Automatic annotation (TrEMBL):
Residues 8-76 form the HTH gntR-type domain. The lineage of its organism: Bacteria, Pseudomonadati, Pseudomonadota, Gammaproteobacteria, Moraxellales. PROSITE patterns: HTH_GNTR. InterPro entries: GntR_C, TF_FadR/GntR_C, Tscrpt_reg_HTH_GntR, WH-like_DNA-bd_sf, WH_DNA-bd_sf. This is Transcriptional regulator, GntR family. One of its GO terms (molecular function) is DNA binding. Keywords: DNA-binding, Transcription, Transcription regulation. It holds the Pfam family GntR.
Length: 237
């Protein structure tokens, strides 16, 4: 347990340093940050710590990893304020909002997707399938890229930006959805069915599947909450 706390602390420290360098314009937007070996040497931490910090910052939309080119600054926005505000909600509220967004995105993607959109979506779907779910950081990133590709297929920039902003500000809740064994898992099959419905331009089917991905999680959270209340009452009585 002590080692895990130290590891999380190191990752947090690395994230803080990277954010400060971006905030202070040491690393500017669209510029490449130092390589992994340079960060390891400069910060005095291990490779795994650097990789985990970069994965989190990539998920948050702060960094972008370009294969073969390096890691680049995507934005200097600090999402910590948004993250703190999200913490005032709970997991149920998070899933409820995401469910609403996913349904609308599925409908508009089915209506407006182009062949180019579908190539991107299918590539992301295949990447998600090839990613080991036990590698939580990479799996979350591949899942996010798929959903963002679907959002892009809506051709509604406002909805796309809202959805991406929501995902970027809710890392901890998404992590809980992926790792909590008591919650249903929206598996690869249902993601494949969603992509197929969008490809066939079936709006109603895409909406139905999008809702079916998250509705079971809401029901499970309702059940967990009810069990907790009942157990608490039993202890009191």
């Amino acid at each position: 347990m002590i080692e895990q706390i130290q590891k999380r602390s190191l990752v947090d420290e690395v994230i803080h340093v990277i954010r400060q360098n971006i905030k202070n314009d040491i690393w500017k937007v669209d510029e490449k940050i130092p390589t992994e070996p340079e960060l390891v040497q400069g910060l005095g931490v291990g490779r795994n710590t650097i990789r985990e910090a970069i994965k989190i910052l990539e998920y948050l939309g702060v960094l972008e990893v370009k294969q073969g080119l390096g890691t680049f600054v995507r934005t200097k926005n600090d999402f910590s304020i948004v993250i703190n505000s999200i913490h005032h909600s709970d997991l149920y509220e998070h899933v409820e909002v995401r469910c609403l967004l996913e349904i609308e995105i599925a409908k508009l993607a089915a209506r407006h997707c182009t062949p180019e959109n579908m190539r991107d979506v299918i590539a992301c779907l295949e990447d998600r399938a090839a990613t080991n779910q036990q590698d939580v950081a990479n799996f979350m990133l591949s899942d996010k890229k798929l959903h963002l590709a679907i959002a892009k297929a809506t051709h509604n920039k406002a909805l796309q930006a809202t959805y991406e902003y929501f995902l970027n500000s809710s890392y901890q809740y998404t992590l809980e959805l992926v790792t909590n064994k008591n919650l249903p898992d929206p598996n690869q099959q249902i993601h494949t069915e969603l992509v197929q419905a969008i490809q066939h331009k079936s709006e109603s089917e895409a909406m139905r599947i999008a809702e079916s991905m998250l509705a079971p999680i809401l029901r499970s959270l309702d059940s967990i909450k009810a069990d907790f209340v009942q157990n608490h009452l039993d202890q009191i009585l």
